[in-house]
Amino acid sequence: MRSHFDHSRIAPAEGSGGSEGGVALVTGASRGLGAAMARQLAADGWSVAVNYRSAAEEALAVVRGIRAGGGSAEAFCGDVTDEDPVAGLVERVTASLGPVRVLVLNATGPQPAVAVEDLTWEAHLNQLRFFVKSPTLLLRAVLPGMKALGSGRVIQIGSDIFERALPGMSAYVAAKGAQLGLTRSWARELGPHGITVNLVAPGWVPVERHASATEGELRAHASEVPLGRAGTPADIASTVSFLASEAAGFITGECITVNGGHTTG
């Protein structure tokens, strides 16, 4: 069924509109990396569509913070793993803010460790829904608008786990590998339309959902990173900001790993 209209959505501010003259849609932007990306893109001058599935109050808080800083943002509810809600989401964003010029594919779900002995096809599907199905649905929905504009930025949020290949995480690793493959293929296919497609692969960036991480775990991780620390949301947001900018106009099909050198060598 088509997603219901989001009655908790904040209406656009009077005269709103980014200095870039374009709209950035960030999925899964109510907290964590998504919220940081939304704030940075708004600071860059984009009108930001803050997507969320269930955390309405958190998403609205992100919007309020952006507006308090002089930026333009609006919150939009939508399950980005379901075809009808995705179509409705993009329709509402376009009607309210304009066509999407920057698509940041950040939404994710649980990433449990599953031993091979317990690995099921459903475990694979749980990851593929977020990292293959959702990006495909969203790109299809925004593509007509990007083609009409003659330009676009598609930025996937991957993970360095594909290179680290952690035991017990094979379903997640496989889905992230598929996401990278999509990035490279889409970049070649959409380049003639002025659309770039890149992937940002963060290392471990502690955010709200990692609140249970101990000081010992944080220190152990930092000891393996050449730069001596875990990543921050700002590290990832600044990379996304660059890829969304005109300065990155000749970069496409790339995976940019942001993990302090953790996978170097």
Automatic annotation (TrEMBL):
<keyword id="KW-0560">Oxidoreductase</keyword>
<feature type="region of interest" description="Disordered">
    <location>
        <begin position="1"/>
        <end position="22"/>
    </location>
</feature>
<dbReference type="Pfam" id="PF13561">
    <property type="entry name" value="adh_short_C2"/>
</dbReference>
<comment type="similarity">
    <text>Belongs to the short-chain dehydrogenases/reductases (SDR) family.</text>
</comment>
<dbReference type="InterPro" id="IPR002347">
    <property type="entry name" value="SDR_fam"/>
</dbReference>
<dbReference type="GO" id="GO:0016491">
    <property type="term" value="F:oxidoreductase activity"/>
</dbReference>
<dbReference type="InterPro" id="IPR036291">
    <property type="entry name" value="NAD(P)-bd_dom_sf"/>
</dbReference>
<protein>
    <submittedName>
        <fullName>3-oxoacyl-ACP reductase</fullName>
    </submittedName>
</protein>
